[in-house]
What does this fold into?
Amino acid sequence: MTPLRKGFKQYLKLELSLSANSVEAYLVDVGKLESYAQELDVGTTKLSFQQLLGFLKWLNELGLAERTQARIISGIKAYYTFLMLDNVIDQNPAELIETPKLSRKLPEVLENTEIDLMLNAIDLSKASGQRDRAILELLYSSGLRVSELTNLKINDVLFEEDLIVVTGKGNKQRIVPVGKTALHHIGLYLNHYRKQQHNTPGNDSTLFTNLRGGQISRVYVFKRIKQVALEVGITKSISPHTFRHSFATTLVEAGADLRAVQQMLGHKSITTTEIYTHLDRTYLKDVIQEFHPRN
It folds into this structure.
C-alpha cells in the first residue's frame, strides 16, 4: 500500500468513521485510480479534472454496474478531499465531479411461507444446524446487516429484555428488539453447542463461530442461505440482505411507524427506509385515508 493510501485509510477510519467494508472498498477504488494514473505516467496528485473524467469514462466502458460506479466516484472525491486536508495538493480536481443520482430498485423479499420453508429445512440434529437456525431466525427477527450479525458478542444478546445491542456502520450502536422465537434458538445454540466449543484466540466472546472456533464469516452466511433456498425450491436471487428487506417489509405492511423501522434498521436517513412503502401500495393508501382531512 502506498503512503498516500495508508494516510487515506486512517482518514476514512478515524475522521469519517466508515465501516471496515467501506474502507476496504474505497482503498480498492483508489488502487484503480493509481493504476490508471500510472498508464498516463503521472501520479494521482497530478491528475487534472479532464484526466479524472477520462478515468470515469474508462470505468463506464468496463461495464461496471451503476451503483459500483457511483461508489467509486464517492471514494475518489473523498480521496481528493483527504489530499486537500493533508496539504498534499492545493486544488481539488474532483470538486466538480457530480455523483450520479441512482434509480432506487425495489429489493427482493421473501414471503413468510418461504422463510418458514427455509427455517424448517435446517437439520437441528447437527450442532451447526442449531447455529444456522439461530442465524436465520435472528436475521429475520431483527433485520441485521450480515456484518452486524457476524460481529455480535454473546453479551450483546439481552435475553431478559428481549433486545440485542448492535454495532452498525461507523461503530454506532443501537438497541434492536428480538422476537422470542429467535431468542429461543439462540439459547439452544449457546447451551448445546457454543459452550462446549473450543475457541480460537480472541473469540471467547464471539456469538456465532465456525467449526474451528473462529468468528463466522459473511461469505459463509451468504452461501448457507443460498444453499437452503435451493434445497426448498426457492429460485429468487436472495442473500442475507433479503432477510433484512423481508423484516422491514413485514413491519411496514403491518402498519409500523417508519421512524421506528428506521431506528431498528440503523438507517441514517428516513428516505432510505421509505423504499419499503413502495412494496405495499396499500400502506400509502391507508396513510392518506387515515390522516388526510379530505379522506
